[in-house]
Design goal:
Length: 171
């Protein structure tokens, strides 16, 4: 009986540590997003061969609890709000595709912040809806005035389109 109890205690302690580590990683990633405050510009290159102008504007809002990203892709304005909810870094994207993907931080290592959309949480259905299904921001602490902005869109036929831009801070 003691052996089973000890195993349950070990599992509970490990689960608590994992939640704490996730919250700590989310807080660190959120702090990195705050450093993007300001205006950015670049050229978005899509896997379809299309190249379009991209502008991004980041601001810290709501008593430092949210980072707002305003984007403009060749005249299509969109909004992304990042915030930490119950120890999890969440991104809610108000999309030009007329939907609202909700993504969570799935990895944060060496300045690379990766988010994956939770289709169910977003009210979307893979194989039916077209939506942004991932984001990656690659930050370089050696060069805080540039970063790589990338996202993927999954189409109703499950085809993936990738869009990537090297953006620079606008002075």
């Amino acid at each position: 009986m003691n052996r089973i109890l000890n195993q349950w205690i070990a599992v509970a302690v490990a689960a608590g540590w994992a939640i704490h580590a996730s919250a700590e990683i989310s807080d660190e990633a959120f702090a990195q997003l705050k450093t993007l405050s300001g205006d950015w510009a670049g050229t978005l290159q899509r896997s379809t061969g299309e190249e379009i102008a991209l502008t991004l504007s980041y601001s810290v809002r709501a008593n430092d609890s949210a980072v707002v990203e305003e984007s403009d892709e060749d005249g299509v304005a969109m909004l992304n709000i990042f915030n930490v909810q119950q120890g999890e870094l969440v991104s809610t994207h108000y999309c030009g595709l007329m939907n609202r993907p909700v993504s969570t931080l799935t990895a944060a290592e060496n300045g690379v912040l990766s988010f994956t959309t939770d289709a169910g949480r977003s009210g979307l259905e893979e194989g039916k809806d077209e939506y942004v299904n991932s984001w990656t921001l690659t930050l370089d602490p050696e060069n805080p005035d540039q970063f790589t902005y990338q996202y993927t869109v999954i189409n109703a036929d499950l085809e993936i389109m990738t869009a990537t831009a090297q953006v620079s801070r606008v002075e």
